[in-house]
UniProtKB/TrEMBL annotation, chain A:
The protein's name: NADH dehydrogenase (Ubiquinone) chain M
One Gene Ontology CC term in the entry: endomembrane system
GO BP, sorted A to Z: ATP synthesis coupled electron transport; electron transport coupled proton transport
Protein localization: Endomembrane system; Membrane
Native organism: Rhodopirellula europaea 6C
Listed transmembrane segments: 6-25, 37-57, 77-100, 159-179, 185-207, 219-241, 247-269, 276-292, 304-324, 345-367, 379-403, 424-441
Automatic annotation (TrEMBL), chain B:
Keyword ATP-binding in record: no
Record-level GO BP terms: ATP synthesis coupled electron transport; electron transport coupled proton transport
Name of the protein in its database record: Proton-translocating NADH-quinone oxidoreductase, chain L
Keywords, alphabetical: Membrane, Transmembrane, Transmembrane helix
Bilayer-spanning residue ranges: 6-32, 44-68, 97-115, 127-147, 153-171, 183-205, 231-255, 267-285, 291-312, 324-347
Superkingdom per UniProt: Bacteria
Start and end residues of each stretch annotated as Disordered: 444-469
PANTHER family: NADH-UBIQUINONE OXIDOREDUCTASE CHAIN 5
InterPro entries: ND/Mrp_TM, NU5C-like, Proton_antipo_N
Domain NADH-Ubiquinone oxidoreductase (complex I) chain 5 N-terminal: start-end pairs: 82-130
Subcellular localization(s) per the UniProt record: Endomembrane system; Membrane
GO cellular component: endomembrane system; membrane
Length: 486, 469
């Protein structure tokens, strides 16, 4: 396997982890936020370095130069490939903008240490191939929100119920998969268990209640961090896509499609801004799952492109809502708030990110959405058109929210509510990425297509060199496809 | 590429690049919080319009002089995946249909831009208006010249967004905002039909190029290269898209609501350009209509119903802008009938004449009373208004029904609200209540009290704004 020129992966995982320890040791509230911003920026730079290095290496997958975590994890667990190469900087970017847009007054209740631990876990998950380590990381990443809910003395029953089931499905499914013979129908049951786990983590109907509950009970920042990187979709990509037959995945795509339409319609009738955001995210993330489950190169390319777009745009949309909440408290969408004159920049950004999330022309998601629709119609000529309906609902919900928050009456407060410099920086950065990717989409689409092609190829090929010793000796699952390390 | 091709390419690029640059300048100045002065804004806008109009005229003259009837300007593939035969082809077409419509757009946008300079002078939202105007202008140029359905869709969406935002221009009041939302809702749903049509077209002919649908690509002589049933499918979807954009039956209810926006935007969108965009689409794909008799009948019926409905409704409105809006609908309905009958040149001329006249009428609408006053002063007596007796021969109950039909705007909004929006919202509100009930049951929490929580640091607590700033 090719090697990077620097241990980017392990550094990017360790920096936020050590940062969390540093914050715990210092316990200086005054500088806590500033230190966290520095740590997040450093992590983002490391992941960008990782992407650049990986692009220069020009291979499908590569591992770190030195592996100083090999005493904890088996060698080659942390590997960067064409799928994760973009997800890592994306996840780091999401964490950075959330931290950047945190007001000092909110810092004591939004746990920065837990955010850094979450970042470390998410980056480790996205760097991890299908293995017990991935299962452990997927389960571990559910713990920080739980701790926050406990600290806020809110009921954790719904969250625990869903995440407990998620963990159980992962453990049983993966264990069963390890013991099953590849190429036989025996892998269908563990495949189904793993699929159920992935769908649960993605909030597919009717297993989505934990998401609305989390958005209601946790801090907005934590809820965004736990949902926008789309860890559930990653689990499906790593654990299910390589082993599941196409017909099974395409059948599940119908369920994802139903969720997309249902959530889009639900977003229209919400009176709470957070719930509206939650359903919007759910609808868009379900569309990504639809693309992934189509397992056609066009659908996969569309889903992978949309993944980047939705994660970025809905993070932007979410931080705008969070900034507004920080200024005027939790608000309802039943009434007009007329905040445009107080925060014109946030209003523009809110509209832009909302439109980008639905794949409006000239934004980063436009071509991805076209590809996804094309892929869906290719597989299901009639049902596939529901993707368009889901997008239409989301589009209506976005403008409805914009009008309710920023227009409708004149807000004559003299207190300045304009964006702070850090918020402005986050806004400008995301705006440039959303518009830049939309106006010049070819490199991104080409790279995602290449990744989609490789992933499709891996579903069918089993190069002997990639077969892990323990699984190959027992003639078990198709390990190259599952990307299981040696 | 010979000299003439290079000449066309340079001019064609100028036509398309000019509104895109205008939009970039307007957007970036607002994004970086560096708003331009009113004078600079108007100058840049006028320059941009001229930089599109003059090359368009030059192209037209050259085409007339050389006898060339179709000038495609290719910018290659914006996005392509060769192995999957997926491409987003950037192609613009200058022909007998697009050039007149483009020039009409440029002239009317220029006139309205100049009118707005005084009309919105020192208004708080001056820069915002011109940003939306730039989006609209860019969308119109892209839609007019689009050589592929994907390019058309990009322009189409831009026109839709700017329309909704401009209707809600006076955003300190609820009513314009609600109307903007309603228009956006109808646009999104009808645009969904257009997008499905685009995808279907791709699957049928392997490309989104309009030329791919016609055997000979030159408008208006082309004949459809698809079967009758395929034409019916794509044509029906396109017809829904066109009906939404042009406020044809049963979407006409949004047209009077759109008049909540400032007069210049009402004039340019709903009197002149935007309302004709649906008809333009039908005109562009008119060879497709001829491939299916059923489709043709649908177009004729839709046009006729919209024209008759518009005529009835325009006569009982109590304000001038709404009355003009329905008068526009009547004319657009007639234009659609002309397209259905295959009278393509007549429809094009009708669009141009009607758009110009209606822009003038709408721009004069705010000073109508003063105009009447001047006129009466000059002739020295009151103007005599003859009552309209077009339905006088009908029985009284039918006359009353016609009045109610017109006054209630064809019952279209009522029907859409009662039969579509109401059940839809009711159904999902019930789902929402059910979800909340399940959540409460599972968590066994009382109704959340959003005023405070134990930490004393709840989201609902208004924070210290000065620290935030």
């Amino acid at each position: 396997m090719s090697e990077l020129h620097f241990p980017w992966i392990e550094c990017s995982i360790l920096v936020p982890l050590l940062g969390a320890v540093w914050l715990q040791l210092r316990s200086n509230n005054e500088r806590e936020l500033r230190d966290t911003v520095v740590i997040c920026v450093a992590t983002l730079l490391l992941t960008i370095g990782e992407l650049v290095d990986f692009t220069m290496v020009g291979t499908f997958e590569a591992h770190d130069h030195w592996q100083f975590l090999s005493w904890i994890f088996p060698p080659d667990v942390f590997v960067i490939d064409e799928l994760s190469a973009f997800q890592l900087p994306l996840a780091a970017l999401i964490f950075m903008v959330i931290v950047l847009s945190t007001l000092r007054t909110k810092a004591p209740r939004f746990s920065l240490e837990l955010a850094l631990i979450s970042e470390s876990l998410v980056l480790a998950t996205f760097s991890c191939r299908a293995s017990w380590a991935l299962i452990a990381l997927l389960i571990a990443s559910t713990i920080p929100p739980f701790l926050e809910l406990r600290r806020r003395q809110r009921c954790t029953r719904i969250y625990c119920l869903h995440m407990g089931l998620f963990a159980a499905l992962l453990v049983v499914g993966y264990g069963w998969l390890m013991l099953s013979d590849s190429g036989t129908t025996a892998i269908l049951i563990p495949g189904a268990l793993l699929t159920a786990a992935g769908l649960l983590r993605s909030g597919i109907f009717p297993l989505h209640l934990w998401m609305t509950d989390l958005f209601e009970k946790a801090t907005f920042g934590t809820a965004i961090l736990h949902t926008t990187p789309l860890v559930g979709a990653y689990a499906v990509m790593r654990l299910v896509l390589p082993i599941a037959p196409s017909w099974a995945l395409q059948s599940i795509a119908v369920l994802s499609l139903f969720t997309a339409v249902y959530a889009g319609a639900m977003a229209l009738v919400q009176s709470d801004a957070r719930r509206m955001f939650c359903f919007l995210l759910l609808s868009q993330s379900s569309l990504i799952l639809v693309g992934l489950e189509l397992v056609t190169p066009t659908g996969l390319t569309g889903a992978l492109s949309l993944w980047l777009s939705v994660a970025m745009s809905l993070t932007g949309f979410g931080i705008t809502l969070r900034c507004i909440e920080a200024r005027i408290s939790r608000f309802s969408l039943d009434e007009f708030h007329g905040l445009y004159s107080q925060m014109p920049m946030l209003a523009g950004f809110f509209l832009l990110t909302g439109l980008a999330s639905i794949g409006f022309p000239a934004t980063i998601g436009f071509v991805g959405m076209e590809l996804l629709i094309e892929g869906a119609v290719e597989v299901y000529p009639l049902v596939g058109t529901m993707v368009v309906i889901a997008t239409a609902f989301c589009g209506i919900a976005v403008l409805l929210a914009y009008f309710r928050v920023f227009t409708g009456h004149e807000n004559r407060t003299l207190v300045s509510m304009r964006a702070r410099p850090a918020e402005r920086f986050a806004i400008l950065l995301l705006t440039l990425l959303l518009l830049g990717g939309g106006l010049y989409p070819q490199p991104g689409i080409a790279s995602r297509y290449h990744a989609a092609k490789e992933l499709t190829r891996l579903r069918h090929d089993t190069p002997p060199g990639d077969v892990p010793a323990h699984a190959a000796s027992r003639g078990h699952i198709s390990p190259a496809a599952a990307n299981i390390p040696e | 590429m010979n000299t003439l091709d290079i000449f066309f390419h340079v001019l064609g690029t100028a036509v398309v690049a000019s509104p895109v640059l205008l939009l970039a300048v307007m957007g970036l100045t607002l994004l970086f919080n560096r708003p331009l002065s009113e004078t600079t804004t108007v100058r840049i806008t006028q320059t941009s319009v001229l930089l599109s109009l003059i090359p368009a005229i030059a192209i037209l003259i050259t085409m007339l002089a050389t006898g060339i009837r179709n000038v495609p300007i290719e910018f290659g593939n914006w996005v392509t995946i060769p192995e999957q035969a997926f491409h987003f082809h950037l192609k613009f077409t200058f022909d007998r249909l697009s050039i007149p419509f483009l020039m009409l757009s440029c002239v009317l946008c220029g006139v309205v831009g100049e009118f707005t300079r005084r009309y919105l002078h020192r208004e708080q939202g001056f820069a915002r208006f011109f940003l939306f105007y730039a989006i609209f202008y860019c969308g119109m140029v892209l839609s007019s010249l689009a050589g592929t359905i994907e390019t058309l869709f990009v322009g189409w969406e831009m026109v839709g967004l700017s329309s909704a935002l401009l209707i809600a221009y006076f955003h300190e009041r609820e009513n314009p905002v609600r109307n903007g939302q309603r228009v956006w809702t109808i646009y999104r749903l009808s645009d969904a039909a257009l997008l499905i049509a685009a995808i279907t077209m791709h699957h049928m002919v392997g490309e989104g190029d309009f030329g791919g649908l016609m055997n000979s690509g030159i408008w208006p002589e082309g004949t459809a290269a698809v079967t009758s049933s395929q034409a019916l499918l794509v044509g029906t979807l396109l017809l829904i898209g066109a009906a939404g954009k042009s406020a044809l039956f049963p979407f006409s209810g949004w047209l009077p609501r759109a008049m909540e926006g400032p007069t210049p935007s009402s004039a340019i969108f709903y009197g002149a350009l935007s309302v004709h965009l649906g008809a333009y689409l039908l005109l562009r794909l008119s060879p497709l209509l001829e491939a299916s008799l059923a489709l043709q009948m649908m177009v004729l019926s839709l046009g006729a119903i919209s024209a008759i409905g518009g005529a009835l409704m325009s006569r009982v409105q109590t304000d001038v802008k709404t009355s003009l809006a329905y008068a526009s609908l009547t004319q657009v309905g007639i234009i659609v009938v002309e397209i259905g009958l295959g009278l393509r040149y007549l429809a094009l001329i009708h669009i141009m004449g009607h758009a110009t006249l209606r822009t003038m009428q709408l721009l004069r609408a705010p000073t109508l009373l003063r105009d009447y006053n001047d006129l009466e002063n000059k002739i020295g007596s009151r103007l005599q208004q003859q009552p309209w007796s077009g339905v006088g021969w009908l029985p009284k109950p039918i006359q009353r029904w016609c009045y109610r039909f017109g006054f209630d705007r064809g019952f279209m909004d009522i029907a859409l609200d009662r039969w579509i929006a109401g059940p839809f919202v009711g159904c999902f509100l019930a789902c929402n209540r059910m979800e909340e009930r399940i959540t409460r049951f599972l968590s066994r929490e009382p109704e959340p009290n959003v005023d405070s929580d134990e930490s004393g640091f709840d989201d609902s607590m208004p924070q210290d704004i000065t620290t935030a700033a």
